[in-house]
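Same chain as my last thread, 290 residues:
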Amino acid sequence: MVLDLLNILLPIYGSIALGFFLGRLGFCWDSKVISPLVLQVTFPLLVIHQLTRPGIHSSNVLRVLLAAFIVASLLFVIFAVLLRIARLSLQTYLAPAALANMSIGLALGMHGFGNQGFVLSLAFGVVILLAQFTLGRWLPNGEINIKTILRQVFLYALILGIALLFLGVHLPPYLGETLHLVGQLTIPLLLLSLGFALAKVSLHGFARGMLLATIRLAVCVAIGIGVAWALSLQGQEKAIVILMSILPSSTVNILMGQEAGIDMEPVTIFITCTNLWLLVSLPVALALLL
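reply #2:
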């Protein structure tokens, strides 16, 4: 069991740590170039490739898509209520509280659950990323722009991939391997980007950030387990939904808040603390679910 956990966790932690130390050493990493490359090119190709591989079951994918939608909806509603009670700004805190870091989730699916589990993590991740680049932009800016949905290439990749999955269409080897070759860049680039983002964070206000991060984790655990139980999920579906629900807040929220002109210093430490909790929550969750 210990060796299994290390085989899953060390590649993830190691990639994040590498990005962190390179960031501390002043290595140049332009997120304005890397993020579009991943979200508009490598990730969509990865989605199409994985959904058209033999042995993938459409019913499993649809159940996880439904679970992801329910989890995301509940997180937004519950955190909106909690933030109102705490008198904290919804514009500043709601997206970071509700939207998790899918780079870690995709890596978990790849290293911990094989091809089928990786596809399920992709399905869950697409829903959260769609929310990230719509609601995650709308909330800090205080306005709704429908055009942002239409610009998300990975949404079209998901639609195409699911259509091919239902039709039973498998890509020819030369095309599938091409998509795989480019698509497999997605996870290392995302994990390195997380490390670089964490390298820029200060620890001012750590106690308050850790308190908020602890409350967030408790809510996410309850929702993940509750949705898995309500949908009667079993096996990999149950494990993926719970694990993806408890992931830390995405550092993309920092960039989006800064673009909107919001003071992100208190939110940045909150996001950092959610990622620190990962060092404890992820090994425990994996030990219980594997």
